[in-house]
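Figure-free illustration: sequence to structure, shown twice.
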Amino acid sequence: MSSTEPIDHDRAPYADAMRAYGEGDWVRVHVPGHMGEPKRHPLLAEWFGDRVLELDVPPLIEGVDITPDPTPITQAQRLAADAWGAARTWFLTNGGSQANHLAVMCARQLGRTLVVQRSVHSSVVDALVLAGLSSAFVHPSVDDHLGIAHGVTAADLSAALDANPDAAAAHLITPSYFGSVSDVAALAEVAHDHGVPLIVDEAWGAHFGFHPALPANALSKGADLVCSSTHKLGGSLTQSAMLHLGAGPYAKQLEPMVVRGLHTVQSTSTSGILLASLDLARRQLATGQARIGDSIAVADEIRARVRAHGRFRIASDDFLQFPDVIAVDPLRVAIDTSAGGISGVRASKVLINEHRIHVEVATGAAIVMVIGAGSAPDVDRIVNALHALPEENGGGEDHSALKVPPPGESRMTVRQAFFSPVEVVGVDAAVGRVSADTLAAYPPGIPNVLPGEVITAELIDFFRGTTAHGGYVRGAVDRAVTGFRVVAE
């Protein structure tokens, strides 16, 4: 397929090339060490099946990666770019984290400060360390009761960019973990008016734009770089992702930066199976509107039956009241379980242990279920299990959700703090010290402390309260939060 040939989304050129090679009568004397021989590697074959071993091929295979131009991977990425409306798309095999690393590396070539949403994924903080960028934060609205963050408004982004005239780019998240969608068009306009590109972490929105009932994707609203965790709701295999380049005013500037950065963060032994899964996921999304409609119908039915029963509340029914939310992803089912007398954390554990149902996330007040685009879980089983949950606080609202305290003062860049000598101190001694780690209480998973920020008494109380409520603190020295890694004095 050349760049001028008609687009045919019924094709999966890279996956087809891999399958053709895997089904060939080859004597494979190359890596990986199992050499596609299920009989000689029975444990792998027993666990994963003969097919996986046959298809597990390394890069630079004749007929898969080495072909006349355009190669199968080039064809597959062109199809993906068309499907998402990108100027160019790259397949990634280290998740949306790799996309964020690439995006921040690109931003470093444009300036020294990244204006970034405070509820940023931890991979962006890691990327700040790698790139040596300073950060300035724009804060999302936070629902304290549910323990979740939403998005940011155009006005707040504008104020943050006004305060940081040396900004390299704006890096925002939409949709949120709970499915709230920000006004990307307005945010892109603000970023461009300030002379910077808009990077969107759309990890949870890979399916957007593939059905009329779904929100539009960020590229269609003017984003310049979009990080997409295709495996989350898009249907590819875990750890596969894409990075999309928008067709806006920064495309020519950003494209060579991405190409250079990719050589740095991409493995030289990329998994062909993961790449093929991206090709197949694109094909299914682009040609599967009816299946996606079925998934939306399943999510709608769960919500309708929960509302009709009257015990629990659909949390997303209130999302549009927040100024930074303009839409809600219908494939996210967010349920306020506290309204029915049980915490989200406890509800999740009961669903797992007694009903064999895993939800995506639980906070002190709520649970979130995600329905993958094209999937259709058993509605009766889900709804019956929900309404069988025990009432543990009299059936009333649970107002015990922890309030998220403000971050401490920033005294160093994240890179300076990360690479400084560190020491571990006890809880009391940590107050007023500069953190060497990123600390995020789960739920809700928002980074509460970044490297270089001061640890406050309020934050320590919040972390310990989180663990007491069944959560944990990512980045803590231990699960009980008995100490902190701080910059040595």
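We now fold a second protein in the same way, so the two outputs can be compared directly.
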Amino acid sequence: MLSYQHAFHAGNHADLLKHFVLAFTLNSLNKKDKPYTFYDTHSGSGIYDLLDNRSLKTGEAQKGILTLLKDNQKIPDELCFYFDFVKSFVSKNLYPGSPLFELSLMRRTDTLVLSELHPAEIENLKAMVKEYKNDKSPVVQIHARDGWEMINALIPPKTKRGAVLIDPSYEETQDYLMAEKTIKEINKKWSNGIIMLWYPLLAHRDTEISSMLENITLSAKKVNPNVEIENLTFCVRDKDSHKEMSLKENQEEKNNPPRLYGSGMLVINSPWKLKETTENFIDYIKPFIV
């Protein structure tokens, strides 16, 4: 979706969940010496300015990561890996996107494959990689191509080990169908790869979301009946809190919450202790965000 720009939403509650799961997964992969390949299908620019007009317009970072980092309570040790990484950027009014987590946490023996189709975003992505890449960073490939097509073409990797993050905008109904179709196909070709799918929680898309998750899960269990699958969700308000109304009514209504009431991460071949640690993370951040 070429009209979508993540700068409006960087550092919001959905990013907190997505990036915690991402960082945990990368740390889990790093526990073995063997190299791995990581794919990011919808990379975006990789870093976001929290003082940008788009971020200030929505205020989502203020209600998300900035609210969390105002807290002076001791962060549980098992959650510090996320907060310690993010703090160094937030102190400069920046928030790291998924590619910067990947670039920073992966090792020089690993391979990072990034895909972005938006012409402005991919230039920003290239600039981010150039600025932050060093001699400890992974090998980086940047593709100006459709993420769905990229992942189908390049999987399985030569390294055998690895993971993929799928994070489309979901502004089109087609994205739900493409996520289901693509994950079914790549899971068959790369049955031991970790597949992470971020998805929004939207009441008016409940049918599409439920069908997508159910069909992906059934397909993965056909490939491997013993596969570890986790479906992790973080809700910041009730499902029915948003009232559907006309654009004019919505502009006049000051107290109508956003449609996005939360988000989820479906993880196939889930790393050990992902569910337990993510639930602890959600329990910790929920009082500040909700």
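Summary for the second example: The longest helix spans residues 206-223.
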